[in-house]
Every structure is written in structure tokens, then in C-alpha cells.
Design brief:
498 residues, 3 domains, 10-stranded antiparallel sheet, Teicoplanin resistance protein VanZ
């Protein structure tokens, strides 16, 4: 009997360790390996960077706390495999230390990450704390909670569980569809004017030349971008407003175009109007009607021919702005060194909040004129440079809407939060694998429908390119969850009796 009890204890410990290890690893990988900024992909001396990299006190504390649950999970897992007390401690240190070292090396190749060997020590210390001090006191509490939950499940009818999961699916799908509306350009202001070369108060000036500017109430394709490379073509393509700046006064077209007033003394040349250093152009009155047209179309494209005089200029320069001053805008094109920075007003970003800022790299490699066309279809932001698609695109989804209310979503994270949200919303559906009272085979129909509902609910508002990735993430999460749920709730059986 003692052998049976020992095997039962090991089996319980193994289950407990796996149950904690999987979400802890997912959290560690998400927080340590996701790129958080644009930077060089590899430092010039990676070994030196790894050895001399430093972390401040708050980062060190975070590294300790992040690996503490890992130490607890490894302690339980090794105990379930029959390792002794010393083996559990040493094994947790070796596994956690090796994982931490692999993460730091990987961070050398991840944009925006800083690798440091001192972080490995902090991670190993956190794992040692979890394995040596917390694993044993926490285990009885976890077992009692798991036993209570399992008892409740076995007493609950499968029909009641099915109703609850159906309700969860309906709420999740409704929230995804509702949040998707916040990615549509529906909150533009009718009071904003067009500015070229600076804001209306002359701040954040941009030294350069503008050949033409045009705004359209639809998203461009690559073919349309290639067909709109000259001022004449821009004016003839039925814009909301368009200006040919190669002549003075500028030729204009479109139902919402207003005459442009010069601030300072802009220079008019064959390349277009030269602005910068307290010289800019602005429409004589707000572009009333533009916001309503864009909101009705749910899409727009801003096209401009631009040539920076200082391609290496570090300070941001406001090239084209449909807005008021520097913090209030509907759409802005900004030079940031060689990159083009785009700020767009959506319900997602709130009226005066320019998050997320979209960065398109290496657009202005020299002072030659470039025709840039920023296109947004209500979900995906694309840039065409001289008619050719830029390598970077950004796809907004419900995940960015939900997270951006509390955290600053960065441009490179757009899309990732939505896929993560789909996986999170599908996790409760794994309960179909729990031992509910009564027949429950039909509950697995929810498992088939769940990923499709979660992935494609945003299509109720507008076609969402992320839907396939959302459905796949939901399906994988659901499959793993069901398998683990069946294993964790399966009764212990053994043929050996002593």
C-alpha cells in the first residue's frame, strides 16, 4: 500500500507541476522574447553586450519574480518524476538557469531587447526562491483548491455547463465585433485644417519640398498607387481634396478643397513648395465634410509627393497634417530621420492620443522626391512608395483596442495582441473536457464552433485579415486545454499493490 501511496503522491505532484509549468512558460516567453521597439537586429559585439549589460533595480526585481513560479513548477514536476529533495533544488536551478541564458542570448537578436548575464543570476535566484521556499507550503493550498473545483464540476449537470459556455461564446463574439468598430476612422474632427510643413502654430517644422497632396475616401491598391504619381493624376482621381503645389497659386480639386494661405515666405520651385523654418502652408478654413466622408467610407488614402532637405535629420518634422497644432490631428505624415511616421486618429487611439504611431522605415534614404501613399481600409494600414508596396504593414484588431486602454500599444505589437486575445477567450472552452455530471458528448460541438466564432466575429463589422490567425490560435489553445483537462481530471489507477 505504501508503494501505491507514493505513486499517487508522485502522480498528483506531476499533474500539479505540469498545470503550473505550461502557463508560466507561455508568460515568460511572451514577456521576454516579444520585440518591443525598432532597433538594429544584432549589436556590433554581442558577446561584450551580453557580459557587460546592466539592469536597474526594478528590472532585477521583475526577473526574480518572473522565475519564482517557474521554480515552484519545476520543483513539483521533478518531485512527480521521483527526484529527491536535493535533485529537485538542483534540477530547478539548472533548468531555470539554462532557460534564462538561452533567453538572454536570443534577446541579442530581437529588436528592442537588452541582453545581460546579470539577468540570468536574477532569474536563477527567483527559481531557487520558488523551489526552495515556496513550493512545499503552496502545494497543500493548491491541492485543496483543485479538489474543491473538481467536486463542484462533478456535481454540475453538463447541460448547465453547456449553457454557460454558449453564453461565454456569445459575449466573446459580441465584444470582438464591438471592439473592431474602434479601428474604423469614425471620429475625425470636422474642425481641422490642412497644414504642410508645420503645425498651425508653426511648431515641429519640416524643411523640405511638397509637390502635391491629395486625400481620397477609399483604400488604394498597388495599381491605383502606381496610377497616382503626378499632380495631374492626383487631381483627376476624384479626391476629397487635392493640391498641385508645383504652381502658384496651387491648383486645387475636390469638393472639400479650400485655398491655401502661406505662412512666412514659402519658396515655390519646379519641385514644389519649399517649407520649413517657420514657413508653411495651411488651408484658409477647416476641411468641413472630410470627416463625414471618411467615416461613411470607413477607409481613406493620403497621397503626397515629398522631398526632405535633411534626410538624416533626427528631430521629427511635420510634413502633412490634417489637424490643429501638433497634438490634435486626423492624419499626419512626419519625417523621423529616414523613416516615415504616421499618426492616425481612431476611436482606438482616443481624440488627443497619438498611440499607436506607425513607423515605416527607410522611406527617405536621400533628398530625392518620393510619392508616398498611406492607405487605410479600416483594419490594415499600408504604405506605397513611388507606387511600390512598403515591406511593413500594420493590421489593427480587437486586441489592440482592449489593451490600449491600459498599456501603450506600440506599432510593432499591432496584430499580436489580437491573436493573444483570441487564445485567451478560447481557454474557458477547454472545460468541455471536464467530468460534468450526465452525458456531455455534445459539449464538444462547442469546441468545434468556438474558434470559428472567436476568429471571425470581427467580420460582422469589417473583413479582418487576422481572423485566420485568431481562429488557429483559438483552436490550438482549445485542443491543448482539452487534453490537459482530461488528463488532470482522470482518476489515478495502479495495478501494483503492496
Amino acid at each position: 500500500m505504501s508503494r501505491l501511496l507514493d505513486r499517487r503522491q508522485q502522480y498528483v505532484s506531476l499533474r500539479r507541476g505540469v498545470a503550473l509549468l505550461l502557463p508560466v512558460l507561455a508568460l515568460i516567453f511572451a514577456l521576454t522574447l516579444y520585440p518591443f521597439a525598432f532597433s538594429d537586429s544584432l549589436p556590433p559585439q554581442p558577446a561584450l553586450t551580453l557580459i557587460t549589460g546592466l539592469s536597474h533595480v526594478f528590472d532585477m526585481l521583475q526577473n526574480v519574480l518572473l522565475f519564482t513560479p517557474l521554480g515552484i513548477a519545476l520543483h513539483w514536476l521533478l518531485a512527480g518524476m521521483g527526484a529527491g529533495r536535493r535533485g529537485q533544488m538542483v534540477g530547478a536551478l539548472l533548468v531555470a538557469g539554462g532557460l534564462a541564458l538561452a533567453i538572454e542570448v536570443a534577446q541579442l537578436f530581437i529588436p528592442g531587447r537588452t541582453a545581460a548575464l546579470v539577468d540570468v543570476l536574477a532569474n536563477a535566484g527567483g527559481a531557487a526562491l520558488g523551489s526552495g521556499r515556496l513550493a512545499q507550503p503552496v502545494a497543500p493550498v493548491v491541492d485543496r483548491m483543485a479538489g474543491w473545483c473538481l467536486a463542484v464540476v462533478r456535481q454540475t449537470p453538463a447541460a448547465l455547463a453547456g449553457v454557460g459556455l454558449i453564453g461565454w461564446l456569445l459575449v466573446a463574439g459580441g465584444l470582438l465585433a464591438y471592439w473592431q468598430q474602434a479601428t474604423l476612422p469614425s471620429n475625425w474632427s470636422e474642425r481641422y485644417a490642412l497644414q504642410i510643413g508645420a503645425a498651425s502654430d508653426g511648431r515641429r517644422f519640416w524643411p523640405g519640398y511638397a509637390g502635391f497632396v491629395a486625400l481620397y475616401d477609399h483604400a488604394f491598391t498597388a495599381a491605383k498607387a502606381r496610377a497616382t504619381l503626378t499632380p495631374a493624376a492626383a487631381l483627376a482621381a476624384q479626391p476629397l481634396f487635392a493640391y498641385d503645389l508645383t504652381q502658384f497659386p496651387p491648383a486645387l480639386d475636390g469638393p472639400f478643397a479650400h485655398s491655401l494661405a502661406a505662412q512666412g515666405k514659402p519658396a515655390f520651385t519646379a519641385e514644389g513648395v519649399g517649407v520649413g523654418y517657420q514657413r508653411w502652408l495651411a488651408s484658409s478654413e477647416p476641411l468641413a465634410g472630410v470627416a463625414a466622408a471618411v467615416a461613411q467610407a470607413r477607409a481613406f488614402t493620403l497621397v503626397a509627393q515629398l522631398a526632405p532637405r535633411e534626410p538624416e535629420r533626427v528631430a521629427e518634422g511635420l510634413m502633412v497634417n490634417v489637424g490643429r497644432e501638433i497634438d490634435s490631428h486626423n492624419i499626419s505624415l512626419i519625417q523621423s530621420g529616414r523613416d516615415l511616421l504616421v499618426r492616425i486618429r481612431l476611436p482606438l487611439t482616443r481624440p488627443l492620443n497619438d498611440r499607436p504611431a506607425l513607423r515605416f522605415t527607410e522611406v527617405f534614404r536621400d533628398a530625392k522626391p518620393r510619392v508616398v501613399a498611406f492607405s487605410y481600409d479600416g483594419v490594415t494600414a499600408r504604405l506605397f512608395v513611388d507606387g511600390q508596396p512598403h515591406r511593413q504593414t500594420y493590421t489593427f484588431g480587437p486586441g489592440e483596442v482592449a489593451v490600449n486602454r491600459w498599456l501603450p500599444v506600440q506599432a510593432h505589437q499591432i496584430g499580436g495582441w489580437t491573436v493573444a486575445l483570441a487564445a485567451t477567450l478560447s481557454a474557458p472552452l477547454a472545460l468541455v473536457g471536464a467530468p460534468w455530471r450526465g452525458r456531455r458528448w455534445w459539449l464538444f460541438l462547442l469546441a468545434l464552433a468556438g474558434p470559428l466564432i472567436i476568429g471571425y466575429a470581427p467580420w460582422l463589422v469589417i473583413p479582418q485579415p487576422l481572423s485566420g490567425a485568431m481562429a488557429l490560435a483559438a483552436a490550438l489553445t482549445l485542443l491543448c486545454g482539452i487534453l490537459l483537462m482530461v488528463w488532470f481530471t482522470r482518476p489515478f489507477r495502479s495495478r501494483s499493490v503492496a
